């Protein structure tokens, strides 16, 4: 038997109560009273009165501060106690939020359960029912995705086998879950059925796929092996959501500036005018021509478009069949060029009578034909295009339409343009090539004719000392023109104490009085000044300009694209070959049926813009019209 220690021996000797607990020792108050210690004066047999008399005789009194030299009694907690109390308070505040120290604060209450067990059970049942309904909807959706489609253009055929397997796993998981299995059993069974090699990881990933599909309706693309550690802005889904896409910069619709406020305002007015013109034009549909219904006093309208394009001798096709490791060396520069300016109508394409055509070839560059300007275009229009049009379309009015390049908006040399005029008189010979035409203006409700030139008598001295009177024609100058109209000002209204200047080189003020040129340019006769092209066309026909950045409304752009394709396919990198074959490439692209298809497509854009659509809506509307029936016994997709 093992010997007991001192602690156990003492515990055996102590008294216990009926419950087995130790009884504390009782103190004897009577004995403590008897053993009370007596004072010294009591032991000597002295009374309290004797002690008081002695104190009076000795004249003893208590001195204030007599005990200052004595060490006082420390009545606060020790440093060890404070340290222990601080640790306990800190642990209570962090780890035990329901401790006595927090509960002791006034206003603190332990929240009671707001719902009973029965209500909680009903709430869980409702959540379970809602989840089952959501799972059933996801199951129906994914069943359509994994069902095979008998079509070569189906999205299902373009998916990888791994993505299809993931969708099938989610389909099996949802099916088993709705049959009553828990998620662990359902995911394990789906993994065993669809994967030949077992893995403990697949049931967990199937649950993750199912959760993502239920919440978002899709499973994220598989990222393994796609450099997931290299983050790129192009991989951000927000970039795709905002409409950005990494693609080749092909010429289609210019979105930069396409929806600018001033452009949209002009487009809305222009498209409505064009739709009015179209009522008097022929329709070309499926190889047939529908004549317009004309009133006795109405004239048939024909749309004529114009544009320029440049072909280069070294412009070859970009894509070709090459062997592995083969690299075809291409020319580094585009080579010599040929510029083409062409007018087209939808009924003839390139207008021509034998060798007389509405096409002009031009070799642009220094030491060649020079550079194409509005004078060259004006010459082509006057000598070739308008006579050809009137010969091919007798009794018809042409709607000649151009893009808004600076070349097409240039003024004639005799136009009233204030920026070309000096302030004071100047000899007409020094003003070449400008020869300003006379004009009219209204002053005091009367019409006045104003000449731009005056004759001055100049006395010239000869070498022999004799003088000769010579008449020289002078341009009046802006000051004289404004004085005759009563508009000249000596003092500048915006610069106190300074003379009125010719040009302020700044934006004009609302009253146009910031400078002489701005004031003259805003006079009615100067504001009505038309460009050289417009003056030429409007003698017998109608002049129009496309909206800025709207090349989709000009069918000749697609004609250029097809011609460039032919030129690149037959490129042999020589200017001589290009010069010989460029007409052949253009004639190949100018098939009349193809031109009419391009023409009809552009009208669909114009019609969409006339209804107030923007660029995206117009593109969708055009695509809807371009859809065709791909099989018999089938209703078209747009119907």
TrEMBL record:
Listed GO MF terms: nucleic acid binding
UniProt cross-references to InterPro entries, sorted A to Z: RNaseH_sf
Bias (Basic residues): 1-18
Positions of region (Disordered): 1-34
Record Gene3D superfamilies: Ribonuclease H-like superfamily/Ribonuclease H (3.30.420.10)
PANTHER family according to UniProt: CXC1-LIKE CYSTEINE CLUSTER ASSOCIATED WITH KDZ TRANSPOSASES DOMAIN-CONTAINING PROTEIN (PTHR35871:SF1), EXPRESSED PROTEIN (PTHR35871)
Protein's UniProt name: DDE-1 domain-containing protein
Organism: Circinella minor
Classification of source organism: Eukaryota, Fungi, Fungi incertae sedis, Mucoromycota, Mucoromycotina
């Amino acid at each position: 038997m093992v010997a007991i220690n001192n602690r156990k021996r003492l515990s055996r000797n102590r008294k216990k109560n009926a419950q087995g607990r130790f009884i504390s020792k009782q103190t004897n108050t009577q004995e403590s009273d008897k053993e009370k210690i007596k004072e010294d004066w009591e032991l000597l047999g002295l009374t309290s009165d004797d002690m008081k008399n002695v104190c009076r005789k000795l004249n003893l009194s208590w001195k204030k501060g007599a005990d200052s030299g004595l060490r006082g009694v420390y009545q606060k907690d020790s440093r060890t106690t404070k340290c222990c109390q601080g640790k306990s308070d800190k642990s209570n505040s962090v780890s035990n939020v329901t401790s006595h120290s927090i509960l002791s604060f006034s206003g603190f209450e332990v929240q009671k359960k707001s719902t009973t067990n029965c209500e909680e059970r009903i709430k869980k049942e409702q959540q379970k029912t809602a989840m089952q309904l959501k799972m059933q909807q996801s199951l129906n959706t994914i069943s359509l995705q994994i069902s095979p489609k008998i079509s070569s253009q189906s999205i299902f055929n373009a998916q990888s086998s791994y993505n299809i397997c993931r969708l099938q796993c989610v389909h099996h998981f949802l099916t088993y879950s709705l049959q009553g299995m828990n998620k662990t059993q359902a995911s394990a069974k789906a993994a065993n059925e669809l994967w030949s090699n077992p893995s403990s990881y697949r049931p967990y990933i199937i649950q993750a796929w199912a959760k993502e599909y239920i919440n978002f309706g899709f499973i994220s693309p598989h990222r393994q092996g796609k450099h997931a550690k290299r983050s790129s802005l192009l991989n951000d889904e927000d970039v795709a959501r905002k409409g950005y896409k990494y693609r080749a910069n092909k010429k289609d619709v210019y979105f930069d500036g396409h929806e600018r406020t001033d452009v949209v305002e002009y487009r809305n007015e222009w498209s409505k005018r064009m739709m009015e013109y179209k009522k008097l034009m022929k329709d070309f549909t499926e190889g047939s021509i529908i004549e317009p219904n004309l009133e006795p006093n109405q004239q048939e309208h024909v749309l004529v478009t114009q544009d320029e394009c440049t072909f280069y001798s070294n412009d070859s096709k970009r894509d070709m069949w090459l062997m592995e490791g083969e690299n075809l060396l291409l020319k580094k520069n585009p080579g010599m060029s040929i510029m083409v300016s062409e007018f087209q109508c939808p009924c003839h394409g390139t207008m021509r009578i034998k060798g007389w055509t509405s096409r002009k070839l031009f070799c642009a560059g220094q030491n060649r034909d020079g550079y194409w300007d509005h004078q060259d275009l004006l010459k082509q229009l006057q000598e070739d295009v308008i006579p050809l049009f009137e010969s091919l379309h007798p009794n018809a009015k042409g709607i000649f339409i151009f893009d808004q390049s600076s070349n097409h908006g240039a003024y004639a040399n005799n136009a009233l343009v204030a920026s070309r005029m000096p302030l004071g008189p100047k000899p007409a010979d020094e003003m070449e090539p400008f020869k300003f035409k006379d004009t009219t203006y209204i002053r005091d409700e009367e019409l006045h004719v104003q000449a731009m030139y005056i004759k001055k008598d100049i006395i010239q001295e000869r070498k022999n000392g004799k003088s000769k009177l010579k008449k020289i024609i002078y341009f009046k100058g802006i000051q004289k023109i404004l004085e005759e109209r009563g508009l000249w000002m000596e003092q500048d209204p915006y610069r106190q104490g300074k003379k009125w200047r010719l040009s302020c080189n700044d934006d004009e003020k609302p009253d146009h009085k910031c400078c002489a040129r701005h004031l003259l340019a805003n006079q009615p006769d100067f504001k009505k000044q038309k460009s050289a092209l417009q003056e030429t066309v409007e003698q017998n026909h109608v002049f129009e300009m496309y909206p800025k950045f709207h090349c989709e409304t000009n069918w000749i752009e697609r004609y250029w694209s097809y011609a460039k394709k032919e030129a690149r396919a037959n490129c042999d990198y020589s200017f001589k070959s290009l010069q010989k074959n460029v007409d052949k490439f253009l004639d190949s692209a100018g098939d009349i049926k193809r031109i009419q298809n391009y023409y009809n497509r552009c009208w669909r854009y114009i019609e969409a813009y006339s209804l107030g659509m923007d660029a995206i809506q117009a593109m969708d509307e055009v695509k809807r019209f371009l859809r065709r029936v791909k099989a018999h016994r089938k209703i078209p997709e747009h119907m």
